[in-house]
């Protein structure tokens, strides 16, 4: 049994976008802050009540709100953030979709929105409009009115399917 | 946003977890963290230690026999995908995808938020909660497990091990959730399970959530339907009778009066959906 006291720190390992990182954190440190402090500042904080999804990352294959996890709890996890999506400077089809369909304005919700779309399309490669809207219901956007985000995800879905089919 | 300081415990096995929890009064188990961490961030609670449960094997997995034994750490996502009558449908409308990827059934019922979704199907199906501690295991009917809002039958050092739900073979079921927006807690939630033979109701269970301190069965609605055919007229009568089991409070989700009316509407919808 490992016991870390309130005034102590604990060392953790995270695999982020395919690279290994070590960090030393207080138990109370939130994963979102740990990720941002390690340089992944595409992960955003938009609320303090777990509603907005701006902090969404993929952890061990599932989308999670990194503001509602402790960094210590994520010890050993494999994490994908927006920074890990492009390959050799080439945009991921979801990133391309947001560009082509004007699915962003201020861009603050965009990293979280794209990571949730990534999870959605992995679970359901051919989502209907309704399934897309339900799939991103944990991600708030105050600029776009969502319409073009739905279009962007449809675009990505078609592009990703035409590649793999 | 920033939790207060607390210690953190990573047990090797469930015995260590139970031992530590029992000997540290204000320590708390950490499951999905999606009620606990939001409360820490608002500093509503100040536990001395959090005890991590996620690796404990005794609390994992779903076993199916004549009933479903659902490990406490099973996530809303996993339950939504596992084809359990009534419960899977309910799990699929809890919160949003990210929350469902982390939140667990054990955490949800231990937290006992009066607005949470699971209590409606759990009371309707006569589910049982298996509680484990240093002294062994005990099985508690869900109705006795939920004592009051945010209050359960658990004492310090006890953990929910699993939730046992009958297979409900031959039943038709539905969960109707009224919400302001996708991802929100229920304004009103109604779970229905019904068994018909030759067009006549042989068994019916109606569970209500979000309109009392804890989930309730609408017994007189059930009696109205028993041994009868589900005509529109009878459904409407039974749905009206459910309102007497609702004692909601007025809040940002609506007035008490509105919520009571919605109990009728949602019960009626659920009954019409399960009708053959
Ligand atoms: C944005 C948001 C929206 C939500 N919407 C809904 C909704 O619509 N419907 C709904 O029902 N819920 C909703 N929830 C709550 C969510 O379902 C939580 O995940 C759930 O209530 C708690 O489960 P958890 O595994 O996250 O538990 P935790 O937060 O880890 O724990 C909750 C409590 O239970 C205790 N505990 C945990 N596991 C055990 C165990 N095995 N034995 C004993 N005690 C234990 C903890 O110590 C703590 O006191 C929402 C949450 C968020 C953040
Ligand atoms: S910052 Fe809003 S949900 Fe995480
Ligand atoms: S683009 Fe501004 S919040 Fe979504």
Task: Please outline what is shown here.
Chain A has helices at 31-37, 93-100, 110-123, 129-135, 147-164; strands at residues 2-4, 10-16, 19-25, 56-59, 62-65, 78-80.
Describe, in plain words, how this protein is organized in 3D.
The complex is a heterodimer of chains A (165) and B (276). Chain A has 165 residues and is an alpha+beta fold. Chain A contains 5 helices and 6 strands, in the order βββαβββαααα. Chain A has a 5-stranded mixed beta sheet with strand order 3-2-6-4-5, covered by helices on one side. In chain A, a hairpin with a 2-residue loop joins strand 2 (10-16) and strand 3. The model of chain A has no long low-confidence stretch (mean pLDDT 97). Chain B has 3 domains: 7-52, Uridine Diphospho-n-acetylenolpyruvylglucosamine Reductase, domain 2 (2-Layer Sandwich), CATH 3.30.43; 59-166, Uridine Diphospho-n-acetylenolpyruvylglucosamine Reductase, domain 3; 173-274, Enolase-like, domain 1. In chain B, the strands form 4 sheets. Chain B has a 5-stranded antiparallel beta sheet with strand order 4-5-10-6-7. In chain B, strands 11-12-13-14 form a 4-stranded antiparallel beta sheet. Chain B has a 3-stranded parallel beta sheet with strand order 1-3-2, covered by helices on one side. In chain B, helix 9 packs antiparallel against helix 10 (232-242) and helix 10 packs antiparallel against helix 11. The longest helix of chain B is centred in the C-terminal third of the chain and has 19 residues, at 256-274. The A-B interface holds A 1-8, 10, 26-28, 30, 45, 48-51, 53, 56, 62-65, 67-70, 72-73, 116, 119-120, 133-135, 137-139 and B 1-12, 16, 20, 30, 33-34, 37-38, 40-42, 48-50, 52, 54, 77, 95-99, 101-102, 181-183. Strand 1 of chain A pairs antiparallel with strand 1 of chain B. Residues 45-47, 50-55, 65, 67 of chain A line the site of one FE2/S2 (inorganic) cluster.
